[in-house]
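Hey everyone, long-time lurker, first post.

I ran two proteins through the pipeline my lab uses and got sequence/structure pairs for each. Pasting them in order. The first:
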Amino acid sequence: MAQDRSVAEPLWAIAIWALVIFFVVNVIATIAAVVVSSLGTRWFGAWLPAGFTTRWYISAWAEFQLHDVLVVTFQVVGAVVLFSGLIGVPAAYALARRNFPAKQFVIVLFLLPMMIPPITFGVPLATVLYQAHLGGSLSGVILANLVPTVPFVVLVMIPFIEQIDPRIEAAARVFGAGTGRLFLHVLVPLLTPGILAALLLVLVRTIAMFELTFFTAGPDSQTLVVALYYAVYAAGVRANQSIDAMAVVYMATTLVWLLIALKFVDPTQIVTRVKRDAR
């Protein structure tokens, strides 16, 4: 029995590593194919294009109005990050420091927009926003994206707040600090790493959010991911290289912010905390 186990364990390890390597190779190959296509002149039936050029990026910039799309994207992302922080951090403080009968139920409510697919609540949410004359506008896109990002900030910030000794807050109140001064001058400096980590992840999440933005965006409020979808599926003949160039811009934008976010937070810690709160 022990011998069978000693033989099975290396086989399992080899199988797992083989699957990991297979997955990584496929991801790298897919990304490389898009990048090479965005730089190729013509690519038919060969391992590499006939030649390389950067003109497709210039073409995509003009054809898809990438300047305006990027401006809208960063406006939406900036507003979502700002409001998520202003709403989420105080809410996280209330949940971390206060006990009340329905606390676990409230935490579950915060978990729902993160646990269920956005498309399940995106359609009714978009209906409400259009009835309120906010659908198709920049404000509607921002409000729709706040639905999952505010709970995300709350759940990320709760463990950071719980690590702060309540006696520090009590000492600040003894020396005359009110709630506002306590929050701004004592808690915010201590919570800066957590706030920065949460907001950076919100930024990456908002850039990549498709469903909610797609349902609520209009012609002048499309973010980069929605504009990329329309570029692929809209009627008309477009060069594949231009679409691939647009996809590379999207991937590069998301990747840069993701790498910055990973410098400040370990995603496995967030997943562990969310599962523990869900119980």
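...and the second, right after it:
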Amino acid sequence: MRILDTAAALFYQQGIHAVGVDAIVAASGVAKMSFYRHFPSKDELIRAVLVEHDRRYWTWWDAAVGLHPDNPREQLRDLLDTISERLHRPSYRGCFFINFTAEFAKAGHLGSGVVLAHKQQQRTRLRALAHALGVADPDLLTDQLVLLIEGARVSALTQGDSGPAKNLSQCAEGLIASQLPGSTNSPAVSSAT
């Protein structure tokens, strides 16, 4: 839908608060009456944009891990390499969900539940991959990967290509390797010493 695509692009480029309904209507070429027929308020539109972004994100994720369906290590490599590539695009302006949260810090906005569900889904999917790897502590590796990915997203925005986000895949490889069976750095081994 043209309104959603236009709103998503403007929100991402300029910020959600900075973009009014009039700007979205003008840029999309949709009549204002038609806009309000689909979205009774800007808050409803914001939520719809988040839902659509979430849908597209998981389609992208599934494609990233789908190249190696029976190899969780390669799936994680593909996923992290693809995330890293996205972070270094000239058009990158941060994670859409983090940006929303920065603008709507207090809970209660119609879109807050979409963001929370998205981030929980990310954690669930990463945990499934960590568990499939057979690592010593899948929950710990999941938390490490979530923190690494989220930190890389912010770092890429604040520090650009020369910042630590450029090492996302390499850092993740180290975390994963340290937890694989037989590693002398795995949590199960370290806690016993």
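Reply from user beta_strand_b:
Welcome! Quick read of the second one: The two ends are 58 Å apart (CA to CA). Confidence is low (pLDDT under 50) at residues 188-193.
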